Amino acid sequence: MRKEMIWNAVHEVGIHTRAVEELIESTLTELTELQAKLIQVSNVAGVSYSTLQESFESVAATINDLVKVRGTMAQCHETFVETKEKIPGVRTTSWGNGDPCKCVIAQTDLRVVA
Prior knowledge:
70% helix; mainly alpha
C-alpha cells in the first residue's frame, strides 16, 4: 500500500514536470510568433524601425529569459530522475537506463558470413 502511494506521488511529479516543460516550449513558440507579428506590422504599416523597437526588444528579452527558465527546468528534470533512484520502492532494479525519458536504442555490429 505504501509502495503504491510512493509510486503514485513520484509519477505525479513526472507528469507535472513534463507538463511544465511543454508549457515552456509552447510559450516560446507563441513568443516567437509574436515577434514575427511585430515585424509584419512594421512592414505592413510602413513605420520606421524605432517605432516598434521597444516592443521588439521587450519580446526578445522575454524570450531570452524563458530560454534560461527552460535550461533551469531541464536541470530540475535531471535532478528528479537522479533523486528517484534514492527513493525506496521507486528505484530502478532492472537492466537498462533508469530514465524513462531517454530513448536508448540497442546496437550491434553486423558481420558478413560467407
